[in-house]
Amino acid sequence: DQQVKQNSPSLSVQEGRISILNCDYTNSMFDYFLWYKKYPAEGPTFLISISSIKDKNEDGRFTVFLNKSAKHLSLHIVPSQPGDSAVYFCAARYKWGSNYKLTFGKGTLLTVNP
Amino acid sequence: SAVISQKPSRDICQRGTSLTIQCQVDSQVTMMFWYRQQPGQSLTLIATANQGSEATYESGFVIDKFPISRPNLTFSTLTVSNMSPEDSSIYLCSVTPGGATQYFGPGTRLLVL
Fold first, then answer.
1. Hey, which end of chain A has fewer CB within 10 Å, N or C?
2. pLDDT tens digits, residue range B46-98?
3. First to last CA, chain B
4. A25: phi > 0 → left, psi -120 to 50 → alpha, else beta; which?
5. Do B41 and A106 touch (CB under 8 A)?
């Protein structure tokens, strides 16, 4: 049962335009949501996160929006650059006993065309 | 944040053999995590390794197949035992030095023939 879903396997955007990556979740107990970027042959790199008590977090060109009622979050990249081309993973944190764990979506491949 | 290194970065192994992957962190952390990413798939948590205690394995993963050591607060190893082609994956370690963010190592690309 996939609790974090990224329904778009791929997205293609023109350089300079906005990229919007979407993520849906089913578990109301998630308390943090994180976005990671992954290049081939590298480990995931943390991009930005948002607490479940917030609805927006911004860091430079990256903004994450959280809609708790819809159990939906999105990552906006403005303006998109060719170097942003990578796989983007949405992850959600939950408490398990005394620890926290992350569950990941399947990722969206973003291609930014020059 | 944390700087994490993994060895080896990649390997090609024969079925039936075992490979030990090392993970080194530049700071002391209580918990280390081991993940697997099979081709075209998401990251799947294998186990959580706390220093001084037995690793905790996720459903579908067992200690005999993926033994883990955690001798100190900056180092851990994951062994992939009795390998088969289905074990071909990227293996990643990660840590949470503080707060909600997990930081990942560069990964170990394993191909089993």
1. N
2. 999 988 788 999 999 999 999 999 999 999 999 999 999 999 999 999 999 87
3. 36
4. beta
5. yes
Q: CB A70: neighbour CB atoms within 10 A?
A: 9
A100 contacts B103? CB cut-off 8 A? no
Rounded to whole angstroms, the Cα distance separating B103 from B97 reads: 8
Q: Which of B87, B51, B57 is nearest to B69 (CA)?
A: B51
Q: Given an 8 Å threshold on Cβ–Cβ distance, is A44 in contact with B104?
A: yes
Does residue B51 sit at the A interface (CB-CB below 8 Å)?
no
Residue B1: band (very low, low, confident or very high) from pLDDT cuts 50, 70, 90: confident
Using the Cβ of B53 and the Cβ atoms of chain A, whether some distance falls under 8 Å is answered with: no
The answer to whether the Cβ–Cβ distance between A44 and B43 falls below 8 Å is yes
Number of helices (H), then strands (E), in chain A: 0, 11
A101 touches chain B (CB under 8 A): yes
pLDDT tens digits in sequence order for chain A, 114 residues long:
679 999 999 999 999 999 999 999 998 899 999 999 999 888 999 999 999 999 999 999 999 999 999 999 999 999 999 999 999 999 999 988 878 899 999 999 999 999
